[in-house]
Predict the structure.
Amino acid sequence: MAQSVRLTLVTDAEQPAVRLAFAGAALAATLVLPLAGCTNAASEPSPDTQTASAQAPSPSETETPTTTPSRSQAPTRSTKPGAKLQVSEVLTGLTTPWGLVTLKDGTLLISERDTRKILHVDGSKETLVRTIDQANPSGEAGLLGLLASKDERTILAFYTASNDNRIASMSWDGQRLGEPKVILSGLPKGSRHFGGRMVLGPDGYVYVGAGEGGNPSLAQDKGSLGGKILRITLSGKPAPGNPFGDEIYSYGHRNIEGLAFDNKGRLWASEFGENDWDELNLITKGGNYGWPLVEGSGSGKGLINPKIVWRPADASPSGLAYWQGELWMAGLRGIRLWEIPLDGTSTGKPIAHFTGTYGRLRTVMPSHDGSSLLLTSSNTDGRGRTLPGDDKLYRITR
């Protein structure tokens, strides 16, 4: 078989530098795989995959932040897709906010990737409750996702250490975080693509987005935890009933930074593509989501196609949330918030909000009582234009 040469232009929003990579059959570093009619790394979406298009600004994009409403104010509810959104500033002056936990008392915990700090936020007051000294910030690395146990007595933090990515557990008494105890280590570090998002499932187990660390081959390697969604206990052990008897729940992922359960207990994930397609996937236990055999959708045997794909310039998705019957996806390079209507397992036409208004958007999460949606910007991460007062935490109602 003749060797092939591919010219690859990498424009990943989490790795904006452009590079040229030449790949041949003997050059495994860029992982050109035989596709033989079953996959195509730059394929057009399959008929079962919806393609989202960039849209003109929605009415809500003309909104400007107002003062934070008091907790006693009840928001106007609307389940109509595309309804106008009201935005208020909750907090300003944050540095690379990444993880976000909403607590029963209405307060919040926020992690800052580059400062390694965890802040407790009560209204507009913030208090430093822990610095993760073992975190090693650089590029995409640092202190990433946060998660609270159902009883809120335990907080998990996902962070990049010197040689790997780890998850640590800390006690929480409402005022102080205890010393971090590592419960899972050895997640691939590499140069980029760390994942870092965690969500508590309705089954009480922790679901973790673990990136492939910039090494695409790990995503198909079941002997590695990279390029996977993991399902673990609060103590870091493999959850009972996992499909392969270890921590892995699904595989074939590139870099997942968004995880959300809908009201029927279905798991959804937003995922960075490489050059062509970012993805929204409905996750199936044991499922293979294709990377690096295919980017976006394809016809490979046993591969699960995305529900929706976006061009990276319009998305580069990080956080994902389920709120008022819909999914909400934060875009970094896309500098917008995507509203995605749901009808069971079917997705409606995505609606763009705030295009260009608040810059890069990292994390989105419902408030604990469900009355609002919380959203963080990510303009101080070194890859965007810093706006006055950045970074910020916003509250959204409709």
In short: Confidence is low (pLDDT under 50) at residues 1-11, 15-40, 59-78.
